Amino acid sequence: MDNNKFITPTGKQKLEEELTLLKNRRVLVAQKIKDAKELGDLSENAEYHAAKEEQGLIESRILEIESLLKSATVVQPTGSKTRISIGSRLTARSNQGEIIEYEIVGMSEADPKHGKISAHSPIGAAFLGAKKGDIIKVVIPAGKIEFTVQDIR
To answer: What range(s) does the Transcription elongation factor GreA/GreB C-terminal domain occupy (predicted)?
Structure first.
């Protein structure tokens, strides 16, 4: 299966919430465009051009989210504490002694700064299927790194 088409229930909920906000924002931007048109000459109307640009960004994101929600497979976390899968949270120790905590998510949910890594990324893919105590070897742009799985939640 294609990992970038997986999404957790939490990820799906966040996308649905964002979609609702964008659709509400779309109505406000349409009103801004209407108001700006009433100001006259559109060629030099900064408010109109800014609103049209915002409208384009909103429409693009709405289409992106709708497409993802239609094509993504919602993966229920297995709750398995023995093997890492999408939705698993894990703690591991690097070969440099650093303790890391990750949640394995679908590509659209990845947020490495907050510990959410895509199952499609080199590190996320390496952890899939691993058990507590397994040593995971990953080649990243900075070189090769090893992790020992400490805990799975």
So the answer is: 81-152
pLDDT of residue 76 exceeding 90, the answer is no
Strand partners, 143: 140
CA end-to-end distance (rounded Å), the chain: 23
Alpha helices in the chain, H assignment, sequence order: 9-37, 46-71, 122-127
Contact between 127 and 87 under an 8 Å Cβ cutoff? The reply is no
Domains of the chain, CATH where assigned: 3-74 (1.10.287.180), 89-152 (3.10.50.30)
User: What is the overall mean pLDDT for the chain?
Assistant: 92
113-151: per-residue pLDDT in tens?
A: 999 999 999 999 999 999 999 999 999 888 899 999 999
